[in-house]
Write a structure and sequence with these properties.
The chain has 122 residues and is an alpha+beta fold. The protein has a domain of 60 residues. 20% of the residues lie in helices and 12% in strands. The protein contains three helices and three strands. Strand 1 and strand 2 form a beta hairpin. The longest helix is centred in the first third of the chain and has 10 residues. The chain is elongated and about 75 Å long. The mean pLDDT is 79.
């Protein structure tokens, strides 16, 4: 996070809250955005700026789906902890190829007798 972004948030923003990951959320002060329909909202990421670090509750607030900030931790017992997107990293998921297939691949050069029966009856 740059010094300029912190300074901008301090001058033009109003601190709203922090999530479980340590991300800080801000909303523009009313005097700064009078002509806009919604107050501008943004996040200062804890660590690398990775948008997938934002949990669902705060994502709704950022995109004006919810007008009130998320209350206390609303995690249910069956929910897993939030994980950031690992695409393009060493931790990315690579499925193992199947050892056998349960179907036959179609080859375009081979004659398809069923197609001939259906379409060439005329």
């Amino acid at each position: 996070m740059t010094f300029g972004l912190r300074l901008y948030s301090w001058i033009n923003g109003r601190y709203v809250g922090t999530d479980r990951s340590g991300n800080q959320y801000y909303e523009a002060r009313e005097w700064f955005t009078r002509a806009q329909k919604h107050l501008r909202r943004w996040v200062l990421y804890n660590g690398d700026p990775e948008p997938s670090k934002v949990c669902a509750d705060w994502h709704h607030w950022l995109h004006h789906v919810e007008q009130d900030k998320p209350l206390v931790d609303t995690r249910y017992s069956w929910e897993k902890p939030h994980q950031q997107n690992t695409t393009g990293t060493q931790k990315a998921y690579f499925p193992t190829p199947p050892t056998h297939t349960s179907y036959e691949s179609w080859a375009p050069n081979e004659k398809d007798e069923k197609w001939d029966e259906i379409h060439l009856k005329h």
